[in-house]
């Protein structure tokens, strides 16, 4: 099968591309906020994070 015989696959419309980009940005921002939250909690707790019974 040549490359010429293959279909192009799924072609997204401009609205779908815009929607996908917005969704990707929202997921990235949510992940960034979660990382910052975990970092802030770790900094606030300080070395007490390591003082726990084994």
From TrEMBL:
Keywords for the protein's UniProt record, in alphabetical order: Membrane, Transmembrane, Transmembrane helix
Superkingdom per UniProt: Bacteria
Residue ranges of the TM segments: 25-44
Name of this chain's protein: CoxF protein
Organism: Bradyrhizobium lablabi
């Amino acid at each position: 099968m040549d490359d010429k015989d293959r279909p192009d696959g799924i072609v997204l419309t401009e609205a779908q591309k815009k929607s996908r980009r917005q969704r990707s940005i929202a997921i990235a921002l949510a992940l960034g906020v979660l990382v910052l939250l975990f970092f802030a909690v770790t900094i606030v707790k300080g070395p007490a994070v390591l003082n726990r019974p084994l």
